[in-house]
Amino acid sequence: MTQANELLRQMFAAAVAAANPAIVVPPCLPSKPKGRVIVLGAGKASAAMGKAAELAILQQWGIEPSGLIVTQYGAAVSCEHIEIIEASHPVPDENGLDAAKRILALAQSAGEDDLVLFLVSGGGSSLLPLPGEGLTLDDKQTINRALLKSGANIHEMNIVRKHLSAIKGGRLAAAAYPAHLVTLAISDVPGDDFGTIASGPTIADPSNVDDAAQIMARYKLDLPAHIKAFLSTDAAQTPDPSNACFTNSETRMVARPQASLEAAAQVAQDAGYTPLILGDAIEGEAKEVGIVMAGIAKQVRNHGQPGKAPLALISGGETTVTVSGPTGRGGRNTAFLLSFAIAMDDAPGISAIACDTDGIDGSEDNAGAIYLPGDIADARAADDRAIDYLTAFDSYSFFEKLDRLVMTGPTLTNVNDLRIVLIEP
């Protein structure tokens, strides 16, 4: 299955390349402003976006921009005029708190003739941990840990985060007003919703505090009483779409998951496979989605493969992992793939990859992993039971022992997860 292994890696590389900030950011810049250009940003891809924007602004406008961008550790790139700070993701730290305070202050310094260019991508929510009045960084860390273990989807997580923040949910737009505010976004969320990417710091928020309280109750989040009490204060309410601060604000999507899925599909087609894109917003519990995807793959191979040609089933979106009890290592992609592998049980002719396009699966050092027929048998031969790894939330260790981890390091972009299943006739 060497050929399948290589093709899966090539398709993943193509998906990542389709969201390269150096390519997608410059065409989306607005017109030259009368005043200053202040570049702000947050997210896993934001530093690379900042470098692309800085070069284009210097070349096209002859203006030296200023500003500050916060990205995750290991994802910084060198800029000449824009300061880059690294901070922790997915659980925020002091660096992120300091960056968020300074980004808010820079937005507030903008005048009517200035352009505030906000560059945002997935991960920005954890990287801008500016707590609401009366809350602390410890509170934000507690909230994030509880949300990550709860099984809540990204949209629900961000509703809670917005109403406990002093910068998210449109509050950064309020700080920048009346400057011209342009948000350039790389989407990593289902539906490419601007308000969900990084919890929408520059986007009007249609949700309210009751929505946040209901989510906290639905997932039985074990949070201190003072955090829950904050939702009853005026400070918890976010600017809604009628707020005047959005009158001089515009948004532009520079990269989205669908384009990356299409790039992967083209590689498959060039290799003689028929690509089928199943969707760019598939959600659900990782292990359950893995079982369903395995069922689809078996059905297609046994009964529905048109013309008996090789197929590539391609999907994106963000699954979740509900954690209970002690845990090992692994993110949602290896959890999905291990569940898929168990359900496949070495059925011939079916291989798969599951990776995060940012190069980091959860909080580990891998992008994801690859499954090939025979992997389950190899694990059994080593006295390893795949189901034990899945139950212990230790999918990383399972694929590490098989030498199936995909290690890319931070890719400096982020358009969510990519899952590919290759089916031979």
Describe the structure.
By secondary structure, this protein is an alpha/beta fold. The chain folds into two domains: 2-14 and 258-423, glycerate kinase, domain 1; 31-255, 3-Layer(aba) Sandwich (Rossmann fold). The chain is 39% helix and 18% strand. The strands form three sheets. Strands 3-2-1-4-5-6 form a six-stranded parallel beta sheet, sandwiched between helices. Strands 7-9-14-11-12-13 form a six-stranded mixed beta sheet, sandwiched between helices. Strands 8-10 form a two-stranded parallel ribbon.
From the 3D structure, determine the CATH topology of the largest domain: Rossmann fold
Order of helices and strands: HHEHEEHEHHHHEHHEHEEHEEHEEHHHEE
Helix content: 25-40%
Overall geometric form:
globular
CATH superfamily of the largest domain: Glycerate kinase, MOFRL-like N-terminal domain
Query: Which percent range describes the beta-strand content?
Result: 15-25%
The separation of the N and C termini measures: 14 Å
Number of strands: 14
**Biggest sheet features:** 6 strands, parallel
Work out the radius of gyration: 22 Å
Poorly predicted sequence stretches spanning 5 or more consecutive residues: none
Record the strand order, biggest sheet.
3-2-1-4-5-6
The helix tally amounts to 16
CATH class of the largest domain: Alpha Beta
Output mean pLDDT.
94
Q: Which architecture of the largest domain would the CATH scheme give at its second level?
A: 3-Layer(aba) Sandwich
> How many individual domains?
2
